[in-house]
Structure formats: C-alpha cells, structure tokens
Amino acid sequence: MYNDNKNFAYIAFLSSVLGDVQRVNKLFEGNQVDPTKLLKDILLLLESLIKRVTAPRHQLDLLTVDINNFVDKHCYLGYLFEKTVREMKENGTLSAEEERCLRDRCIHFIVNLIQEIQMRLPTNVELLKKISLLSVENTLKCDKENIAELLCFFKQPAQLIPKIESQYMNINLIKWNNKSNTNDFWSEVNLYRDSGNENPFKELAKFALTILTLPHSNAEVERLFSAMNIIKSKLRNRMQLPMLNALLSVRAGLKRHGKCCDTYEMPKDVINKIKTMEVYKSDDLDDSVLDLFITETDDVI
Questions:
Q1: Quick check: 94 pLDDT over 80?
Q2: Residues 185-188: contacts with CB within 8 Å, 24+ apart?
Q3: Which segments constitute the HAT C-terminal dimerisation domain (predicted)?
C-alpha cells in the first residue's frame, strides 16, 4: 500500500488539506484563544476549501452553496500532489484513466469535507459573526458597526440597549493599555473608574465578559468531565455533589490563577476559620469555596 505511488500522491494531497483543518481544530480545543475570532477562522477554512475545487470566477455563498454544481475537475490540488502525478506520468506508471480517478478521489474528499462543515455551522451564523464586534480591534475603531442587533439577539433589556450602544461608541475615546488581548481588554474596561469612582462602561463590560465566557467548543466541558472522573473515583463514589462541586471549583480557581496546590497561599481569614464552627454555618459550601478564588472581573459574570 505505502509503496504505491498513487497512494503516496493521495497522502501528499491530504497532508496539505488536513494540516489546515487540524490548525482550526486546535484553536477550538484551546483555552487561550480569542473567542471573538473563532467563527472567522472556521469560515476562512471553509472558503479556502471551496477555492481549492472551484474556479476563481465564482462568487459563492459559503453557507448555502451546493459545491457539487461548481466543482472544477481540473483544479490544482497542491504542489506535492501535482509533482508526484507529473513524475508518475513521466515514468509511465500512471495512465490517464488512473489520473482521472485519483483526482476525482481527492476532489470528492474536499467536497465531503465542505458539506460536513456546512452542516455543522449554526443557522444564525451571520448574526454570530457580529460577536467579532467585541474584539479589541473592532471595539477601538472610530468607524464601527452598531451592536444593537447583537444586544437584541442576547435578549438585553430594551431600556439598557441605548445605554450600551452609547458606551460602545464612546469606548475608543479612552486610552487603554491592553490592546492585544480581547479578554484582558474587557477586564481592564470592567475595572475602569472615572473621577467619581464609577465605571461609565459598566453595562457594556458586563455584556462583553458574559459573551466571552460562553463555551466556544465542547473541549473545556470534556476536560471538566475528565477532572470529575478523577476526583469522584470508584473508591470515592459516596462523595456528595456539594463536595464534588467545591473540589472542581478549587481546581478551576487554581488553574485560572496559574497556581498549584503547593504554591497557593490560603487567605488568612480562611485559615482562621479552620477548626471553628463558623465554616459550617452556611449550607452553601460552593459559595464559600468560590469566594477563595473569585477575582474582581468575575463579579460581572
């Protein structure tokens, strides 16, 4: 199989295509990415795949196009593939019919991949594109789109929409320090105070941070389930939900602060409560644990 040049040509073709797919997939699995740009990344992947198998003259709708109607049977399939095919033809080891079948196989793979991506994109993808308006680059533009549609989609109170709109339009008037990372930028906005010790962008910052906390893939959820299975093992199967939730919160808090159990310094007020009845006064164990790790920026979420 591996000595077959036709299979080698096909693998050479796949390496280029799957490299792009894997890059985008890793973005969705990561927890240090800008969620306002993820949709753009997958749409760029979809567009690049469509351009691989269609003629440049076609201007197609990425989300609704039936790619089978626009496939170019003689499209360029990458340097390694074309080089291998050319060498095989020169050596007389690849007939015209075999080349046609090989090209059809490659094109069929891309067409199926395009259709799978289209099926998995949400129907409201055009509206979700507007989440990119919350990226630090778009937020600080002087000439920017209105975010009213985005606010309505996420069911913000009608009386708040004009206020948040105004805050969004004026936010570029302030000189901000964090201009490279969207999460850090909105954290800075949330902590901003004017001369009256009030935040003139409070509602906008709360909305933006809430959107940024939405899970952009199931990778983080799967990590949480893995951590849960480690904590609540067969030997600890009688552990109750409050304790499990508290331990998961501790792990999440340490991870968020970039600390480990051997480097985290317990707050003095918590240490003083050890071996006292005060720690048992509240039935809500989760809140007492979360308070140890919550930050000022978490208060808005």
A1: yes
A2: 185/136, 185/139, 186/134, 186/212, 187/297
A3: 167-251
